[in-house]
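Q: My labmate handed me this sequence with no annotations at all. I'd like to see what the chain might look like in three dimensions before we decide whether it's worth expressing. Could you predict it?
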Amino acid sequence: MAIILSGRDLSDKMKQDYKKEIEQIKQKHNIVPGLAVILIGDNPASLSYVKLKEKACTEVGIVSHDLRFNADYKEEELLKLIQDLNSNNNIHGILVQLPLPEHIGEEKILCAIDPEKDVDGFHPVNVGKMMIGAPSFLPATPSGIQQLLLRNNIGIEGKHVVIIGRSNIVGKPLAMILIQKKPDANATVTLCHTRTKNIAEIARTADILVAAVGRPHTVTKDMVKQGAVVIDVGVNRIEDKTRKRGYRLIGDVDFEEVSEKASAITPVPGGVGPMTITMLLHNTIQSAKKHAGIE
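A: Here is what I predict for the chain of 295 residues:
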């Protein structure tokens, strides 16, 4: 059976380090990292995710500014709010929870955030810096995956990484991060998507296989090379009347079958998800330190 790569356990360890770091910053520099989280509408998944972010902030000592608005909140009002947050010295990170209502332009909103406070790493300036390997805020999920591998002593350098999924949030940035000419990267990356032919054949060549498509059981046992490391990014709700809430969460990977063949695998839930939030905390702390001139 595969080793279970618990993002939850690693996240707990990292958050303890962040808590100590924030206490030191507060004592020495009288700075407390502040994160503004903006939620428009009442999407259940977004609500749940925002609550987890706020809980994590409280645990480590980051001040979380919870800004929630109805689904009819106007685009111009949101732009004005972001402008105010950009100039607020107590706010070191700004996060706009996606997806946004249809009447609000996602690209316009993301571009309005000060790149120095873009702790999600979605601003074109930060995307460009990531592309060329310059210091920047890295998107939380891809950087969380990288840390999950590195901190479990899974080498990336020289490995063939196959990523199934080309989203701007996971697939594309993860490819850019892992292909960099750096000691914690230097992988050979193949990016697959819905128009890729012979995905199963390509997947079987992977030393590290990442599934990020948002469809249950996309990756099956026959798609995995013996001893490969499998990272499951997907979170899918399926009906389960035996559960109190009427559903359960599964990933994009057929966990039971694939875990018999893989050397290591992430569970869902408890794998990549906790690391995403942890890296958001990391970015917020780094932003606070930069704004305060702390090395």
